[in-house]
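Example 9 (inverse folding). The structure is encoded as follows.
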């Protein structure tokens, strides 16, 4: 008896699935880096993605699918200014923002005379000459008093270079989401479904009228120290809000529909890389992406004052 045609995968679907399985099997594995300040995760099955009404279907947040991961280690905190400075001292590395001699800074964090240009359609992003990880708000600023804040103004390319030096790698999107969920099943945030349980702020996002007035009810109007809020169920700090975190995957809104469910790594190529977690600039009126399943992307050479990363390592 022949199967009904609707049950037979198309040739294109079958080819994509096989390509995804091969990419998963051949994915980069690193085991040389220190596991200090890392958390070992046993992996296993979890439900990835969401179909909740507050989500962004066009981003490819759904469908909900069961994914299986091998064990891995993940940094307890995002990479800090202190850690990145150690990397720079050891390697004399210059970030892309330093080589370009500019980066993007949010408009309320700088005097108008420093603004060289703004981004069309999102004019709160200002091109600032001299802004980089050392000078997050441009000339006159520094990170001397912020050693335990997440490093920012780092591109995906910069993050990759740090990972190589540290003997680690960037997480896949699936690994990141598994860690961020903290053992909870299909909850909106790392701690549950309520954003501020009992009126308590558990992450650093925007309160007020975006993009003009941030009332900073959570305690911060820019980035916060990496241990500012309680950890999730697995022990990870500031994994949502504060600063976006790079993943290794190329971004595609529909690739995962036909991708392998075992250690998925995203498409083989693309125009931008996945970012997860949201930032201190996220607000429900504009960028409700501080949810665990939310996702966005940026080009590999992009840097802003709200993008950071954390590393993983294989067993």
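The amino acid assigned to each position is listed next.
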């Amino acid at each position: 008896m022949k199967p009904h045609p609707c049950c037979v995968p198309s040739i294109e679907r079958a080819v994509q699935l096989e390509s995804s399985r091969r990419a998963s099997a051949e994915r980069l594995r690193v085991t040389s880096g220190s596991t200090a300040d890392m958390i070992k995760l046993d992996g296993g099955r979890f439900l990835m993605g969401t179909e909740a009404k507050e989500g962004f279907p066009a981003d490819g947040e759904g469908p909900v699918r069961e994914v299986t991961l091998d064990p891995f280690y993940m940094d307890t905190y995002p990479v800090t200014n202190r850690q990145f400075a150690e990397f720079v001292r050891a390697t004399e590395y210059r970030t892309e923002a330093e080589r370009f001699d500019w980066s993007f800074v949010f408009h309320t964090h700088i005097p108008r005379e420093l603004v060289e240009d703004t981004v069309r359609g999102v004019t709160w992003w200002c091109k600032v000459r001299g802004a980089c990880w050392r000078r997050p708000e441009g000339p006159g600023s520094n990170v001397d008093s912020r050693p335990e804040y997440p490093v920012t103004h780092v591109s995906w390319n910069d993050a990759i270079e740090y990972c190589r030096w540290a003997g680690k790698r960037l997480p896949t999107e699936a690994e990141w989401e598994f860690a961020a969920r903290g053992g909870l099943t299909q909850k909106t945030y790392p701690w549950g479904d309520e954003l501020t349980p009992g009126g308590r702020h558990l992450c650093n996002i925007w309160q007020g009228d975006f993009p003009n007035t941030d009332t900073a009810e959570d305690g911060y109007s820019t980035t916060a120290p990496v241990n500012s809020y309680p950890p999730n169920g697995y022990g990870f700090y500031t994994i949502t809000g504060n600063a976006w975190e790079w993943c290794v995957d190329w971004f595609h809104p529909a690739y995962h529909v036909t991708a392998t469910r075992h250690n998925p790594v995203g498409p083989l190529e693309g125009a931008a890389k996945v970012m997860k977690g949201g930032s201190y600039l996220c607000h429900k009126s504009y960028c409700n992406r501080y949810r665990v399943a939310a996702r966005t992307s940026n080009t590999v050479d992009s840097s802003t004052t709200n993008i950071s990363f954390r590393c993983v390592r294989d067993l």
